[in-house]
Write the structure tokens for this entry.
Amino acid sequence: MITIQNYYGIVEDAVIHKLYNISKKLINKRVVHINSTYVGGGVAEMLSTFIPLMNDIGVDMEWRIQYGVPDFFAITKKFHNALQGDSISLSEIKRKVYLLSNERFSTFTRLPHDLIIIHDPQPLPLINYYVKKQPWIWRCHIDLSHPNKELWNYLKKFILKYDLVIVSHPNYIQKDLPINYKIINPAINPLSTKNMDLSSKEIESVLQKYNIPTDKKLITQISRFDKWKDPEGVIDLFKIVKQKCKECRLVLCGSMATDDPEGIEIYKRVQKKASSLIESGDIILITVENNYLVNALQRASSVIIQKSIKEGFGLTVTEALWKGKAVVASNVGGIPLQITDGVSGYLLDPYDIDGFADRIVHLLQNESTANKFGIAGKEHVRKNFLMTRLLLDYMNLMNDMF
Ligand code: UDP
């Protein structure tokens, strides 16, 4: 099990000292996080590391996962999409399934904790089914810059019951919500199997196991098969790249999250669109959930793409930067917090596929630029987006709340 002690030498000593110093004020406080998936996507990725480390420092922190019928997840995925700007038909039946599922979960979930932290829209209405005896926080990881108004007005009545809303970017603050907001950027665990150092032999053997040849340069996007990650747009831009640079291959790696029912459908569309390039071995699609594989793929790639149309924060970008990789990404959501254009990667309009292709080709042909970006990107992550910073942000917050 990774502990705070393992962070010595990675982050500054002062950071570790601060963590221990503040922890004594939080002893005997019980905190619980509730979200709706244990795997796939950034929230599960973060909680799986964050919670054990909190317990290691001495904060009593638990993790509950909300379950529900497929209908519930189909509806909450629509809510997710609408919070990122899609239209939605907010029918009576959708509201009913949403509420009933939360009510049902509440009947077998006791919450005697001192602080309750609810992640994203799925468990948001849980607050309706408890007598509020402690502070409740809603932590929304989604890009809320232009939420669908009808849905927002519906969800607002739950959000207003909360004591605090945490988002990843100042642009996500909604002016019509008279509630305290806090901005907390997500973070990665540099020591997890997904991010730890791997030898070239280890990388080779993982790639071999998954039949990923390394005779050509790899260009990779790691992301759920989700329309906001635009995997179909990645295929389009790869076709342009391929005309200018034959010696490269595209890998799209996207495992399926248990709370994301649209993944399979989008995967099939991508498969169809890329069929001839898949056949020729120029595009490889992967749906396996494996942290070693993600780690090895990111490390083996010459360029990492993140062509999102919306992106709450984008941990895949953080992970790639930490591995010293050149990233070509959309200038949306939390991505520009991580990449400075022309310094630690390239940022583009998500619809500028020619621009994406040009930058990718440039990096494939100019290793020194790619390396320079990698060094700058890794240092930026070390200073701002490692798990110790996230722990400190939450501990300071809890200290203020108790
Ligand atoms: N991820 C993964 N396997 C995949 C696709 C994604 O392990 O096939 C992980 C990825 O490494 C990252 C998280 O899922 O840790 C995605 O987080 P991000 O913030 O980029 O996007 P989200 O999926 O939360 O929208």
